[in-house]
Amino acid sequence: MNLNSSLEKVKGVGEKTLEKLENAGLRTVGDILSFFPRKYEDFASFTKLGEIQPGKVLFKARAEKVSLRRVRRGMTLVEAILTDGEEKVKAIWFNQPYRVSQLQSGDEFYFSGDFEFQYNRYQITNPRVMKREELPKGENFAGEDGEIVPIYRQIRGLKTEIVRKILLELRPMMEILPETLPAKIVAREGLISRSEAVKWIHFPPSSEKFDLALKRLAFEEIFEIIFAAKLNKIENEKLDGYEIPFDLSVVKKFTENLPFDLTNSQRMASWEIIQDMKNGTPMNRLLQGDVGSGKTMVAAISALNAVRAGFQVAVLAPTEILASQLAENFEKSLRGQEVRVAFLSGSVKGKARKTLYEKLEAGEIDILVGTHAIIQEKVKFSRLGLVVIDEQHRFGVAQRQKILEKSAQKMPHLLAMTATPIPRSLQLTLFGDLSVSILREKPKGRKPVLTEVVSPVSRASMISKIKEEISKGRQAFVIVPAISESSNDEIKSVETEFKRLKREFSKLKIAQLHGKMKPEEKDSVMRDFLEKKADILLSTTVIEVGVDVPNASVIVIENADRFGLSQLHQLRGRVNRGGGDAFCFLAMSSTAKPPARLKEIEKTDDGFVLAEKDLELRGPGEIYGKAQSGELRLEFASLGDTATISRAQNSVDFLAEKKVNQYLRKLGHGGSATSQNADRI
Length: 681
What we know:
Elements: H1 15-23, H2 29-33, E1 39-42, E2 55-70, E3 76-83, E4 88-94, H3 99-103, E5 109-118, E6 121-125, E7 128-131, E8 148-151, H4 160-169, H5 171-174, H6 183-189, H7 194-202, H8 207-238, H9 248-256, H10 264-278, E9 284-289, H11 295-308, E10 312-316, H12 320-333, E11 341-344, H13 350-361, E12 367-370, E13 384-389, H14 397-404, E14 413-418, H15 424-430, E15 435-439, E16 450-454, H16 459-471, E17 475-479, H17 494-504, E18 510-513, H18 519-530, E19 536-539, E20 552-557, H19 565-572, E21 583-587, H20 596-603, H21 607-618, H22 620-624, H23 642-654, H24 657-666, H25 674-678
Parallel strand pairs: 4-6, 9-14, 9-15, 10-12, 10-13, 11-12, 13-14, 16-21, 17-19, 17-20, 18-19, 20-21
Antiparallel strand pairs: 1-8, 2-3, 2-5, 3-4, 5-6, 5-7
Helix pairs in contact: 7-8, 8-23, 9-11, 10-11, 19-21
């Protein structure tokens, strides 16, 4: 048996278990060894009920009384009185009717979850339940009432105990896992081997060894990201790119005829980009700009310089409506410059699509703006010199590479753009293969969005302001965190808020937008709102990045205390796109004192300041991890761990280019295959 062996060869894995594992993407021995726990329960630190305090708790108890009742809309509620023989506590579970038979058995269980004040009493809601007899025993754990127990991501129809049994069967395989880091780096950083790390992360024999395993795997994750970026940069520097000369007269004439002055940041960024494109090495640059900082204008200047030199430009956006708006902006910005702009998306079909393909290949289109449709094989350029990717975090490295390969002769220059301000401490980790230009200034004359935290008792003035703005012909956004009604009455949803808005604004047209809608449905709703066919758009955070609605002057963010600073700032940026006064209301869930981050966003509209503050207050996992973009699959590392990041950067720099290539070959990768690792970025 080896790491590539099917799990059907593992003792105890029957047909049904195998099917469930495969459905979860676990097909080989190597897959399940890399199926790391999502969290741990430390059963050495359980609390007696008499000492229980609000917050995260773990305790042992039996159920004294258990009942089941049905509440609204088919929802079930299980209530239980739990006791350790001395004290009692109430627990409730929503939509888990099987808890009744489980708890009525009279067995002793461990319960873990949040003990908090809800519905006018202290209780534990939806706690995890683990039978004492089901806790792992033996040499791999610390023993009874002292176990560090791994909890794995739930696989439908498969208990976490089954996963543990399979891993226990495969424990000998963990002893012979190959090393993935260079030996010099392992020694230099004082790390344990990969084999020991994997073994101790699944079966922690002690808290000390568990910490060593975490340290090793966290370092490895950051190292791989930085290493892939470094390698991409090395490989990029070896490539033959186009030399696109800087035509000062063209750019100067264009900027002098603009109805506004460029900011200093825009001038500097444009200069950096144009200087990069003069070189024979393909540019690989990130243009990072806060909401409303003028990234599109910088891209237009860069594109115009490339077109005048005889090159074509491809501009990619993640959605059709955003791509359509970008195409309109490019046409508007470059009007009178004799630049031919075309648009391509899935909606362009038949003869029109065929004609576009022919013109593009013949060199009769200068700038092609579109969605992922540009990546398709049939799309052929005559002389592609520059690729611009908007909201680049929405495109994987593989997709980036695919569009860059559209140039048959040489590698085109790449300009990636993002509207998400990234703290300086994270830039090298996230975008180590890219040079970075930053737009911090806002165009002159643009007013800041007036921002106010609103408590539940002071909503009347907010409602009045919305009505006032709509009476002037303006529009409003209302943002909620959830789509459907939940067991928590405080959490606003599209479902519940639509009913309320219909009552409060009975004479107005209200549209809805959320993540469960199909892409074409979302685009349709946004187009209607853009065309003023609705007065209020009720939406989840799917509107966070994207389309400009110049007529929108008000945004209400419900349950604002549940969002982070960076996200609130991005949402706030949906208004004031057309100039004039604009308003952002941060509506609180309760009358409690507003969190510090809400007071921060009241004070400033500088996205970079807020991003740094958000990093400080919440940590990077929630800001830049899976919850936001899905691009970084970090299981052990934290982007806020600057010490580990610094060590990993130094270790990568320590490896000479020759050593980097040797390491790559040792892992069985070819030169271009590092892009696969770079998909994590």
